[in-house]
Amino acid sequence: MVKTTRYHYILRLLLVFLGINAVWYAAALLINMPILPSPFAVYASLFQFGFTETWLNIGYSLYRVFAGMLLALLLGLLIGLLMGRSMFWNRLLDPVVYLTYPVPKIALLPVVMLFFGLGEISKILMIMLILIFQIIISVRDGVKAIPGSAYEVLSSIGAAALHKFWHVTLPGALSVILSTVRISLGTAISVLFFTEIYGTEHGMGFFIMDSWQRLDYPGMYAGILLFSLVGFILFLLVDVLDSIFMKWRRS
């Protein structure tokens, strides 16, 4: 049953992929301009990339995404759990989160670069700043949704707070955390593109913009495909983690 479902999923992905390429090819024929090359020209350009250069750009991008997301997850998880389990901390931090969350974080890019330069730190911090508020709010609400009765058995046997956290709070919030990571991945990759335009010579964002400036449109679209493929693989990785840690939802 699981294998059949997996095959159906792969088949749907393949059909969507073929459908997108068919629409793309038709649009390229209709427009008939260099700004929209056919899929065949783009895939040919993709296979012409140097192996070392391609993996160097992908490696830099992955490093920035993982570092920014890891920081956001660690801090966001800590603050969200604190707010979800403590009325005092929720009252104290709730106004801070709600006042700063609506601020357009991408507009802070010049400020972050002024304080931290054009290097890796500013790029990682921008990803962290944009993701951390989503994580805080999602984790806090997920922890609050855990009924108090879920802790009663452990309380009756005198379990410590750490045991309650490990056996009830964390599993209860894990579903929300994984869902937030899924949403955050798309946001992180979008932010990464903007941050890699400035002050770097490596990364998929830099590669795409460099191809655009050189009027290498097949190379530009090939870079976009690679960027999308990286995001797709990361998204599948989250699904794998979900299948490992959330087996109880399918039992």
UniProtKB/TrEMBL annotation:
- TM segment ranges: 9-31, 62-84, 173-199, 219-241
Q: Matching SUPFAM superfamilies, A to Z?
A: MetI-like
Q: Which residues form the ABC transmembrane type-1 domain?
A: 58-238
The UniProt keywords, alphabetically, are: Cell membrane, Membrane, Transmembrane, Transmembrane helix, Transport
Q: Name one GO cellular component term.
A: plasma membrane
**Which Pfam families does the record match to this protein?**
BPD_transp_1
Which segments of the protein form a coiled coil according to its record?
none
Q: Which organism is it from?
A: Paenibacillus durus ATCC 35681
User: From which residue to which does the signal peptide run?
Assistant: none
Topology in the lipid bilayer is annotated as:
Multi-pass membrane protein
In Swiss-Prot or TrEMBL terms, this protein is called: ABC transporter permease
Sorted alphabetically, which PANTHER family does this protein's record hold? ABC TRANSPORTER PERMEASE PROTEIN MJ0413-RELATED, ALKANE SULFONATE ABC TRANSPORTER-RELATED, MEMBRANE SUBUNIT
Location in or out of the cell: Cell membrane
Q: To which protein family does this belong? A: Belongs to the binding-protein-dependent transport system permease family.
Transmembrane helix keyword on record: yes
Superkingdom of this entry's organism?
Bacteria
What biological process terms from GO does the record include?
A: transmembrane transport
Q: Which InterPro entries does UniProt cross-reference here?
A: MetI-like, MetI-like_sf
Chief localization = membrane
